Amino acid sequence: MSTTLVEDFRVASIKLAERTSRIRAASTDTYVRQHKLAIEVFDIYAPLTHHLGVGQLKWDLEDLSSLFLHLD
Asked: How far apart are CA 52 and CA 72, in angstroms?
């Protein structure tokens, strides 16, 4: 799936926007959902933003993920 995302920037940008919006609204989710989403964003979407050259979004996603993963 990630290969397809990288090949078509439009698909990648839509998925990144969706996940960014989702993690920003995750404060109302259960702990399990927050944790699962944070792992997904930290492991998949933050590196994808780096690969696409969107450094500021990468930092934002890592910061938001670390809030739910309790990383300091």
From this structure: 26
Q: Which amino acid is at 68?
A: F
pLDDT by position in tens, the chain (length 72): 555 555 677 888 899 999 999 999 999 999 999 999 999 999 999 999 988 888 899 999 999 999 999 854
Tokens 């698909």 sit on residue: 11
At residue 17's C-alpha, the angle toward residues 1 and 47, to 5°, is 55
Asked if residue 46 lies in contact with residue 58, where contact means CB atoms within 8 angstroms, the answer is: yes
Going along the chain from its start, the domains and CATH numbers come out as: 2-69 (1.10.3210.10)
Contact 26, 19 (CB under 8 A): no
Number of Cβ atoms within 10 Å of the Cβ of 70: 8
